[in-house]
Amino acid sequence: MRKIVFLIAFIGFTFAGNSQQTITATIAHDGLQREYILYVPVSYTGSNPVPLVFNFHGYNSNATEQMWYGDFRPIADTAGFIIVHPNGLLDATGTTHFNVGWGGSTIDDVGFTSALLDSISADYNINADRVYSTGMSNGGFMSYQLACQLSDKIAAIASVTGSMSPATYNACNPQHPTPVLEIHGTADGTVAYNGSNFSRPIIDVLDYWINFNNSNTTPSVINIPDINTSDGSTVENLIYYGGDNDVTVEHFKITGGGHTWSGSAFGGAGTNYDIDASVEVWKFFSKYDINGLIGGPTLIESSEFNDEISIYPNPVGNKVSIQCMSSKAMPYELYSVHGRLILKGVNDLSSREIDLSSLPQNVYILKIGSHSFKVFKL
Hints:
This protein is of the alpha+beta class and 378 residues long. It has helices spanning 63-69, 73-79, 109-123, 138-149, 166-170, 202-213, 277-285, and strands at 21-29, 32-40, 50-56, 82-86, 89-90, 96-97, 126-136, 156-160, 180-185, 220-224, 234-240, 249-255, 288-289, 292-293, 309-312, 319-324, 330-336, 341-347, 353-355, 362-368, 371-377.
């Protein structure tokens, strides 16, 4: 909602390497010229389809400010996705915005987003199953709007200090189980954590998507280490597992946090530095495509007893135990959801546990013999 004011001395600055591209361009939509900034990482060759992330700015901000404030470019350089930063138009008060049902705006921002996606997809090799939306404040509201009204093209969304407007909430019509991440401070003085006349309470927003996705109503709660004790805030990560297509609803609740982008170099007062919102958003997006958890539907639920093997607990804190009726030694392998081998060994009668204490919180794939299990590491 608020405008983020800072001086950028390097507007024309390009990152290390000569092949990254920052392109300012326009498309015509609904009789209007719409502006956007596209960031294409050095790794892009066009030979393979890549994810696309929409990064929407806040109320009274713009695409350039959001590109720096909620910065995904260093992440895109290594993870290989393209970022688009749309520019909002002026509302009746002369303020840049995205239309999420406030103030009588008639701008068709959902149609603009769809047209922009089609335009970028015509010029670049975009993976249509891996299109995501995030944003700050009004940009977070806009991401919920897309999850409700353009869900056939949006795989997952993340909102930072945003919420659902009453109009979005009441007319929401998603077409598939949708992974949703909300990062929000309890001391947000602009988009109140407990709601206002233009925004639903955060708990209502989470409950909507928990119910829609058929997720567990009781979350797993992770207390994020308070690595910066001077920022005046602490963080809990609430994860609602069990959704259809293995999607989750997640919430970083920043107790004492304000209306800011966590971890931003331009954050200012009220900014939490125990997490980096850009990192957490991409970690969340990277697990999903439009069909749900990547690789999820082919895996065995750990709660099911499969032949002679089951595992517990799940989610797991430090060690996962294996229950097996066989006395034979069995090899095991642990993979990331992207297929990278992380651990391997042999499970025998003397050791029916696997130590995962050194691994970060995430979803992993545990293969024991011929059986595969999803493991949720806390």
